[in-house]
């Protein structure tokens, strides 16, 4: 795990430096396409050992509509057109590199949930809270298009709570039981290149 910790910090710092010109372009486009409201929003998520932290993301919704734990679906009316592109390309998650740099997150691990989900896990399921949450992970890969899946359900929140979330917990427990640094590298490869 020490190798994972060092990799996270070094690669996060390197990525922030290399991507800084790209961030500037995204910032300008964001201000042009979504002039009202902030560029970055912070939201409370549950992290390692059940400790809440504030995650950094690029705002994709109308101002003041992203706070809270409601489930968002594809074509959600709160999501602005440019925000939809940011979500589909996962660019909205790039500033989570800051969370990695300060120690709240890792590149690979269970996605951090809003209060009301991960903080209510019981028994062995709480093992997924023994590691830092990640930007990507095996459950994230399986549900890469989660918003589209939810959009097809008559009750998206219920489907998320009863089907998707329990499956994510199962996948994340399997990830922890079989963890290796090489498995993290493979997950990162699949995240970036889809293979």
Commentary on this structure:
The chain has one domain (2-193). It is built from 7 helices and 4 strands, in the order H-E-E-H-H-E-E-H-H-H-H. The mean pLDDT is 91. The strands form 2 sheets. Strands 1-2 form a two-stranded antiparallel ribbon. Strands 3-4 form a two-stranded parallel sheet. It is globular. The two termini are 25 Å apart. A hairpin with a 5-residue loop joins strand 1 (40-46) and strand 2. It is mostly helical and 195 residues long. It has helices at 2-33, 81-88, 96-101, 138-142, 146-151, 156-177, 181-193; strands at residues 40-46, 52-58, 106-108, 134-136.
**Sheet/helix structural class:** mainly alpha
Backbone shape? globular
Number of domains: 1
Report strand %. 5-15%
Helix content: 40-55%
Largest sheet: number of strands, sense, barrel closure = 2 strands, antiparallel
Low-confidence stretches: none
Properties at a glance:
195 residues; mainly alpha; two-stranded antiparallel ribbon; two-stranded parallel ribbon; 7 helices; 10% strand
Helix and strand arrangement:
Layout lengths: L1 H32 L6 E7 L5 E7 L22 H8 L7 H6 L4 E3 L25 E3 L1 H5 L3 H6 L4 H22 L3 H13 L2
Gist of the model:
The chain has one domain. The protein contains seven helices and four strands.
